Amino acid sequence: MNKVLLVEDDPRVASFITRGLEEQLYQVKAVSKGFDAINEVMHNDFDIIILDIMLPDITGFEVCEVLRSRKIIVPILILSALDTPHEKVKGLQAGADDYLAKPFLFEELLARINAQLRRSEFSNGILDFQSYAGIEINMKEQSASRDGKELNLSPRELKLLIFFMKNRERALSRISIAEAVWSIDLDMSSNTVDVYINYLRNKVDKSFPAPLIHTIKGTGYMLKNKSNES
Q: Which end of the chain is more exposed for a tag (fewer CB within 10 A), N or C?
């Protein structure tokens, strides 16, 4: 039975979601404040977090930032009446994995939850490969190194590196990266993908003799070891 932490201060919305998920055999713990949510996550295991933004103590954005800073990698789905592209980008940058606007259909909420759980199962499972060109990924510890040097990646950066590793030596478009790593439709006029690619490059390539993350003109990016090419 999958465990859901629901962070929602509107009792009617919380009750509606809780009833619907429990009918689908989810185990739901509901809280109404951001600090309570952080405390629950630090002391209990959850498979996914459904998070409102406008909470009575701190914002959902702040909850995301605190959890990600503490290396909590549980998928976070923001559920909010704030529906501008700016708010969506802000949620992603804070560490959310998906963003659904209110009002919403329960069927869509359920589909998005299930999609996040499938992605989480992949991330927590055993990769067909866990090393490439000196990069080693430890899925159990959610860490990565290159040539034995710890890379100290954020959860989002690690997820991005895993996607590159899974698709090594393949050209990846910004859209495919956004769909796999953020799981929602990014405003592609924003530079969120490029910003995180630069974050990852600074850790994976900057202190090493040969870069592994390459820009593919007109397409996107590729993880490839070119040092062995003639």
A: C
